[in-house]
Write a structure and sequence with these properties.
By secondary structure, this protein is of the alpha/beta class. The protein contains ten helices and seven strands. The protein has a single domain, classed as 3-Layer(aba) Sandwich (Rossmann fold). The chain is globular and about 50 Å long. The N terminus is likely disordered.
């Protein structure tokens, strides 16, 4: 009981933070629920569009890698199990990842639904996700497939810079920050991922097409896949997504 009380004690939360959260919840109260999967190769624009989707539709953004690291850091029972597997050099099981997703979507921030990014990567994972959601009386409503030719991606990838804390994405040519190397919102430095180079990209694209196309086919069979013209400028892709989700 004491632990539960501590978890809900907001007396030390700054008033501004409380008011911001209250305003967010009022704004979100009338939003319809949405459960969305983002699918696309490296550099397709998911990192640009997901924060917009999250804000506009009051969704939580679930990136499985981040969720695993957070669960391990928080020392939850699922996180400890994941840590044990990783320390042995083993892959974290699909069932454990599904359990972590299920735990996450119970949070108030996921009340209106979620954006799932980076999962599922295989048909087996997709089937397990579908089964978990079905048990909860829900399902994936849309799979947004960021469709783009491989030949367009190299320039995008090699010029990409990321704000690691938020996931905001910039590009030196197509979407530069106001100040080079600095996040527009926080003023914090941007980073470039070590694998954002042409050689790594080719290897990642090969793996993506081999693993992910069957997942897209799985959801095509359910009638929920929308192919986006991801080669277009970001504002046009945003407009396309909003039209699909309206």
């Amino acid at each position: 009981m004491a632990a539960a009380a501590a978890a809900t004690d907001v007396s030390d939360v700054p008033t501004q933070d409380l008011m911001s959260e209250l305003l967010r919840r009022f704004k979100c109260a009338t939003k319809p629920e949405k459960r969305i999967i983002l699918v696309g190769p490296p550099g397709c624009g998911k990192g640009t569009q997901s924060p917009i989707l999250k804000e506009e539709h009051c969704l939580c953004h679930l990136a499985t890698g981040d969720m695993l690291r957070a669960a391990v850091a928080a020392k939850t029972s699922l996180g400890l199990t994941a840590k044990e597997a990783m320390e042995k050099g083993e892959l974290v099981s699909d069932d454990l990842v599904i359990a972590i997703i299920e735990e996450a979507i119970k949070r108030p921030s996921c009340e209106k639904g979620f954006i799932l990014d980076g999962f599922p990567r295989t048909v087996t994972q997709a089937e397990k996700l579908d089964a978990m959601l079905q048990q909860r009386g829900t399902k994936v409503e849309k799979v947004l497939n960021f469709d783009i030719e491989d030949s367009i991606l190299e320039e995008r990838i090699t010029g990409r810079w990321i704000h690691s804390a938020s996931g905001r994405s910039y590009h030196t040519k197509f979407a530069p920050p106001k100040v080079p190397g600095i996040d527009d919102i926080t003023g914090e430095p941007l980073i470039q991922r070590k694998d954002d180079n042409a050689d790594v990209l080719r290897s990642r694209l090969e793996a993506f097409h081999k693993q992910t196309q069957p997942v897209i086919d799985h959801y095509i069979g359910k009638g929920v896949v929308v192919n986006l013209h991801a080669e277009k400028p970001p504002p046009e892709v945003t407009a396309e997504i909003q039209k699909v989700l309206a």
